[in-house]
Automatic annotation (TrEMBL):
GO terms for biological process: methylation; siroheme biosynthetic process. The keyword S-adenosyl-L-methionine applies. InterPro entries: 4pyrrol_Mease (IPR000878), 4pyrrol_Methylase_sf (IPR035996), 4pyrrole_Mease_sub1 (IPR014777), 4pyrrole_Mease_sub2 (IPR014776), CobA/CysG_C (IPR006366), Siro_Cobalamin_biosynth (IPR050161). Keywords: Methyltransferase, Porphyrin biosynthesis, S-adenosyl-L-methionine, Transferase. Its EC number is 2.1.1.107. It comes from Propionimicrobium lymphophilum ACS-093-V-SCH5. SUPFAM superfamilies: Tetrapyrrole methylase. Residues 14-224 form the Tetrapyrrole methylase domain. This is uroporphyrinogen-III C-methyltransferase.
């Protein structure tokens, strides 16, 4: 392979789902960058490393979803992907992290396949692992945690739309990584503690990882909500609960 990154050859009428990594433009894969360079149209949202779009020839369309703010409904995004592809365009759907980790890439892949549009997936570096890592927290660690569960915290544990068994998670003795969980962190932590999670379990909140605003807070799980509130944590943030959050790697 030559060191220069050449545009990918994308068949007209095809959609490529590209995971762009957690925010730093250098954390996209080579295949992902090649797809961006080979695209006619790029549908992106706010968590994608949008700095990479500067200077590209492609038409760039923002289909971003801001939490609880104005957003493009998923059905509209799906239809736009289909329409651009049917128009003979080389289409890239560009998002933050990995498309299949809360990226709704699975829904897009299904919608495209049902419409008869060829679709290809390029995995990305997911923030669920990279954000802790950039803060010096390995999501697993020999002797401390033999596993990790990545969960969405966008609804309260007692919400009828919640399908996570938080009580079971409180007892797994493995790492819990919560995405989209800033607003309901107090409800989630209360549920975990009520379900038997040890109050002195280490926790951390990593905000805006892989950007120049990256910031980490650490506290025992029974104090993490107070600390996060005092520091006015905002999305995008990831909460890590488990022994690994107490590690100091000294890196
Ligand atoms: N597909 C993405 C996740 C999308 S869900 C991935 O694999 O990374 C959106 C959530 O991801 C945010 O609410 C936040 O919890 C997390 N997130 C994404 N980018 C982040 C970043 N740079 N720093 C911290 N959290 C981030």
């Amino acid at each position: 392979m030559s060191s220069a990154i050449e545009p990918a050859v994308i068949e007209p009428g095809t959609v490529v789902l590209v995971g762009g990594g957690p925010g730093d433009p250098e954390l996209i894969t080579v295949a992902g960058m090649r797809a961006l360079l080979g695209a006619d149209v790029i549908l992106y949202d706010r968590l994608a490393p949008t700095a990479l779009l500067d200077g590209l020839d492609a038409e760039c369309v923002n289909v971003g979803k801001i939490p609880r703010g104005a957003h493009t409904p998923q059905e509209t995004t799906n239809q736009m992907l289909i329409d651009y592809a049917r128009d003979g365009k080389r289409v890239v759907r560009f998002k933050g992290g990995d498309s299949f980790v809360f990226g709704r890439g699975g829904e897009e892949a299904i919608a495209l396949a049902e419409a008869g549009v060829p679709v290809k997936v390029i995995p990305g570096v997911t923030s669920s692992v990279a954000a802790p890592e950039l803060a010096g927290i390995p999501v697993t660690h020999r002797g401390l945690s033999q596993g990790v569960t990545i969960v969405a915290g966008h609804v309260r544990p007692d919400d009828e739309r919640c399908t996570v068994n938080w009580s079971a998670l409180a007892k797994t003795n493995t790492t819990i990584v919560i995405l989209m969980g800033v607003k309901y962190l107090p409800d989630i932590v209360k549920k975990l503690l009520d379900s038997g999670l040890a109050p002195d379990t280490p926790a951390a909140v990593v905000s805006s990882a892989a950007t120049d605003k990256q910031h980490t807070l650490r506290a025992r799980v029974d104090e993490i909500v107070n600390v996060a509130t005092r520091e006015a944590v905002t999305p995008p943030s990831i909460t890590i609960i488990g022994a690994v959050a107490g590690l100091d790697l000294k890196i």
